[in-house]
Amino acid sequence: MADDFNTESMLDMYLFENGQLLEQLQETVLEQKDAECFDEDSINEIFRTMHTIKGSSGIMMFDNITAVSHKLEDIFYYLRESHPDNVPHVELVEHVLEVEDFISNEMEKIRSGDPVDGDASNIIADLDKFLNMIKNGGAAAGDAAENVHEEPKHFYIAPVATSASRFYKIFITFFPETEMANVHAYKTVYALKEIAEDILYSPEDILTDEKSGETIIKDGFRILLQAQCTEQEVRDLIGVGYDIEKVEVYECDANQFLLGFDFGDQPVMPQIDLESSVETIEARQEEADQEKAEEKKPEKPQIVPGDFVIQSKEPGKQKKLAKDKPKGEKAAFISVNISKMDQLMDLIGELVISESVVLQSSDLKVPGLNLDNFNKAAAQLASISTDLQNVIMSMRMVPLTNTFQKMNRIVFDVSRKLGKDIEFVMVGETTEVDKNIIEHISDPLMHLVRNSVDHGIESNEERKAKGKMEKGKVTLSARTEAGKVWICVEDNGTGLDREKILAKARRQGILDPQKPDAAYTDKEVYQFITLPGFSTNEQVTEYSGRGVGMDVVVQNIQAIGGALEIESTPGFGSTMSLKIPLTLAIIDGIVMEVGTSSFVMETGVIKQFIRVKEDMMVHEPNGDEFVMIRGECYPVIRLGRWYGLENYQESVEEGVMLVLEVEERKVCLLVDRLVGQQEIVVKPIPSYIKKVKGLSGCTQLGDGSIALILDAPGLVE
After folding, report:
1. Measuring CA to CA, which residue among 260, 298, 290, 92 is closest to residue 171?
2. Residue 103 contacts residue 15 (beta carbons within 8 Å)
3. How far apart are CA 83 and CA 80, in angstroms?
4. Averaged over 647-667, what is the pLDDT?
5. Is 331 left (phi over 0), alpha (psi -120 to 50) or beta?
6. How far apart are CA 524 and CA 547, in angstroms?
7. Alpha carbon distances (Å) from 451 to 52, 158, 410, 543
8. Residue 75: closest CA among 29, 131, 25, 133
9. How far is CA 383 from CA 355, 379, 394, 471, in A?
10. Fewest C-beta atoms under 10 Å: which of 434, 441, 550, 703?
């Protein structure tokens, strides 16, 4: 379908720009899904979005995308121009989201190299039916003439000029760094053709000749326009954006229009097809000249001559494209392939390791060396390295806005299918986290939100019977705290039933027979629903199962060093909280040694270091050990014994205790000695090595040795 445009860069730009437009479209629609109708700004924005997608898809010859976006554009054009009453708002929202889904699916096919063969006929028919309905005052169209979709025409014969027609010569200069200037030039032509009675441009082969972009950058882009509009309207329609550097618009007479850009003694007539006669045009020009004389307009200089031939475009009603970004943003924002960002992050990690190797070199430990100048240079290097890390990390940090908007869409779809009236609230969606973190939490977050809508929120009838406000509420919030990100999914539904969960756990043999039910805290009971196959839902639905898949949620979160906390008040709702790290790349850690092995622990979980005496230790018959510190008893883990190491320090008085705190649980870790604090580049443990409890990765130290990174949650469990 798009064989003539097999250029990878054109497809990349098409997918990138339209992908952003679709995200903005979904955000706009979901923001106003609960309103009575779309406001004027939203109608204009959706109209411009579909207009732009239609135009770019037409250029790429993706006809099904062009057709469906053109039909939705028709609806919002009617809404914008006619302001009809009795428009079913929720139904319109569903139509827009259906079109967005269709275009997104087709774009996904383009990315994967599959044929763009989606059938939009049913969607177009539904949109036609909806358009006819609102044209008939909200009633069914009945015997009204069916608004049959027609494929957009690429070419047409220019209409007869009238006395109101005006003629313009337009010269556009693009920025030298503009990529695919021919595509941007056609976007301008596509915008102008909506007001044009006749339009001509040079070079003419901007669609079929990729090299025409170079010509446009070098020689500029020329347009002849016949339209019933003012010069300012033309300038407003084109606009100066991030791709267009300068726009020159000159009004001319009919004779100059027919001469194209050639003003020699023997002009070359452009090969155009005008139905109006020369006599008519000349008579019209005399009237225009008389009007100019009355207005006493100074004559403007003409553009440098240049002969060209084009085919004209179909006339239509005036429509404005979405304005390009201001010129100033061009230098401020660029698009970078995420693989390059990952590669840059890896290089920064290697730089951090190399810096440690240099600063910890054994050659620097020779007695008698004067290292004052070296130490000054090393301090400056460390400062620059830290700043570089911070900049690179900030480049990888992206807001949670898009992820939260996807959850908004899920709440809307699921609540509609389940017949529940649910309000969705987002708090802190601008919180930024590492892009890799977002990729890991998207699916678990979706599962939690769907569970809240299906499992947590009662039906409308049940809420009324309980005396609750009719509308349910799901709140998705995010905040940062001590190097961690907290993402909470809260609902005001029925909450978790402690007794029901305990009964299920007892049937599955999870509970300790020697431990009474009252000995289990609410937090411990609620954690049972994260176990594999554990669900209290009596009827399995498409969306349900607080236990079906909750174990996968926990595993995915733990894989990135995060944790899931569950709080619930029976009858009033539940809160699922994800605690995840800000980034996975570089962390601050404490390097310690046990025997001949090195370990690293993230500084965020270490509450204190302490030396203990033997008389502070408590030894249980089963081998468990505890230590009394300031009147509190903590379990003790001897790291050497935990991993079966050799030559580790047996005496607690010769070692160092690290007090670790994870999710309000504390444990003391006994190690032989501390080496110091260091920035640690996290490397994954190779897949061919069996996963070991309490380890989350590895890193390379300054002396070239390998240290294992301890996973505090795994040790505290």
Report:
1. 260
2. no
3. 6
4. 85
5. alpha
6. 15
7. 37, 59, 11, 7
8. 131
9. 11, 6, 17, 54
10. 703
CA distance 699 to 97: 46
For tokens 């698009």, what's the residue? 335
Number of other CB atoms surrounding residue 203 within 10 Å: 19
CB atoms within 10 A of CB 254: 24
146's CB contacts (< 8 A; 6+ apart) are 128, 132
For 433, the 3-state DSSP assignment is strand
Contact by Cβ (8 Å): 47, 74: no
* Residues 433 and 396 sit within 8 Å (Cβ to Cβ): no
Angle between the N-to-C axes of helices 231-238 and 181-192, in degrees from 0 to 180, rounded to the nearest 10 = 140
Residue 666: Cβ within 10 Å count? 16
Euclidean distance between CA atoms 127 and 92, whole angstroms: 9
* Segment 309-324, tens digit of pLDDT: 333 333 333 333 333 4
Over residues 586-595, mean pLDDT: 86
| Residues 90, 69: Cα–Cα separation, whole Å | 19
**What residue type is 4 in one-letter code?**
D
Model confidence pTM above 0.90? no
Q: Which residue has the higher pLDDT, 469 or 357?
A: 357
The residue type of 305 is P
- Pair 527, 502: CB distance under 8 Å: no
* Eight-state DSSP code of residue 683: B
Cβ proximity of 479 and 431 under 8 Å:
yes
Q: d(Cα 173, Cα 321) in Å, to the nearest integer?
A: 19
Buried/exposed 599-633: b ≥16 CB within 10 Å, e otherwise: bbbbebbbeeeeebeeeeeeeeeeeebbbebeeee
| Residue 469, SS3 per DSSP | coil
Query: What's the pLDDT score for residue 694?
Result: 81
